[in-house]
Amino acid sequence: xxxxxxxxxxxxxxxxxxxxxxxxxxxxxxxxxxxxxxxxxxxxxxxxxxxxxxxxxxxxxxxxxxxxxxxxxxxxxxxxxxxxxxxxxxxxxxxxxxxxxxxxxxxxxxxxxxxxxxxxxxxxxxxxxxxxxxxxxxxxxxxxxxxxxxxxxxxxxxxxxxxxxxxxxxxxxxxxxxxxxxxxxxxxxxxxxxxxxxxxxxxxxxxxxxxxxxxxxxxxxxxxxxxxxxxxxxxxxxxxxxxxxxxxxxxxxxxxxxxxxxxxxxxxxxxxxxxxxxxxxxxxxxxx
Amino acid sequence: xxxxxxxxxxxxxxxxxxxxxxxxxxxxxxxxxxxxxxxxxxxxxxxxxxxxxxxxxxxxxxxxxxxxxxxxxxxxxxxxxxxxxxxxxxxxxxxxxxxxxxxxxxxxxxxxxxxxxxxxxxxxxxxxxxxxxxxxxxxxxxxxxxxxxxxxxxxxxxxxxxxxxxxxxxxxxxxxxxxxxxxxxxxxxxxxxxxxxxxxxxxxxxxxxxxxxxxxxxxxxxxxxxxxxxxxxxxxxxxxxxxxxxxxxxxxxxxxxxxxxxxxxxxx
Lengths: 288, 268
What we know:
The complex is a heterodimer of chains A (288) and B (268). By secondary structure, chain A is of the alpha/beta class. Chain A is 41% helix and 22% strand. Chain A contains 11 helices and 10 strands. The radius of gyration of chain A is 21 Å and the shape is globular. Chain A starts with a strand and ends with a helix. Chain B has 2 domains: 2-132 and 241-265, no CATH class; 148-224, no CATH class. Chain B contains 10 helices and 2 strands. Chain B has a two-stranded antiparallel ribbon with strand order 1-2. The radius of gyration of chain B is 24 Å and the shape is flat. The model of chain B has no long low-confidence stretch (mean pLDDT 85). Chains A and B meet through helix 2, strand 6 and helix 3 of A and helix 8 and helix 9 of B.
């Protein structure tokens, strides 16, 4: 099966040939299939944001290629347009892109650009608003009258309304309170389950992403440093810390216990699993 | 793409030219522009050119930087030269076919005009290349100080100017960001006819204006919470001071001015 989205030897150099030249992403091979929920983690300046802007063709790679459903995205201008609706990208602080008079019109902007007919646009607006948990009565308000969290959700709905197979979100919960954060994450997971697409979620909070990602990709200095299911990635506690990322505290505790000689298994990163493992261990000791 | 604009760019450095007081540099730049218009003969142009070359050499600004600063104005320079070439009448006819007549005087005026514009721009580029925007507005405020007597809001003007300069890169970055966000929602900014293009700008301009107002609001709050209340009684962190090199530089400028005027009188 061809992966939904794929990059091959992707390299991007900013301001090539000037004194400000800077290699942001270098030789990145990446692929994602349907159903995956991928967390991309990395420091500021690790190249993760530059990387995802290639996935829908906003940035052109200096070298290498990007394929969506096995087909190069820069093959023709028409192809790019098609890719932009297939690969939805929600930027950081997306509420700053709202511009229409009503929330309804703003969410409809993407579908309208896809040249869908009126009924289809309306259907998608309602569906997208439902996905992000916006009450229908908010749709006729001005986006500028909404609260911060509602604005954020309206902006995410604007991308979801294009019903992308790949939904990329760059720090969608930045600056929200814990409740707003939970709501957004819940809504994204719901969308993911409903369309059976791929979600790529950029964050630098390990604790958040570890709970629901099926796969973690760690960026460091323009390269993919680690790539695999969370349990596997969290085995590399030392490497993660060397990159400068904070490991979930449970993973840290478990790795120290192991160093001290307790036979705990690798890659435990949730409290529930840790309790299970430790209880099992205790039972084992008592039984001996 | 928008980031490539070199408007008012500053190249940090530690040369004599960089260390000159911004007031000196401003006065010299104005003087230099005046000189360019006083100069009439090859000799005096040569003199002014020499002055420019020495300044560039002292500032260690690369020729490449200056050429890239001139680039956006190539069209303007060419148009000026071409118009002068065709429309100047004179005595020595060089080319004549159909209705076009090119005179020797035309060639000369075209060359002089093109050279003059290029030297004009290079001189002012040198000022912005070697002086940080902050120093520049500081210098202007000091130079315009006497105008306060005439109730010109000098401090407010210079504060507005430094804020404007400070926010140009921020707004450019913001534009880039919003453009990308709307492109991700299928917007197209470079296709269609003029009306379609203008309409496509709306999703860019509305958020940009809103964010500019938001920034202005935040900045005003930040300034007020640090007790900003205009220029009255406000002290400077870096007080401008004229040093020996400033007086030498101004002296050289004055000498050059006198020399050029003399040359003009002598008809050279």
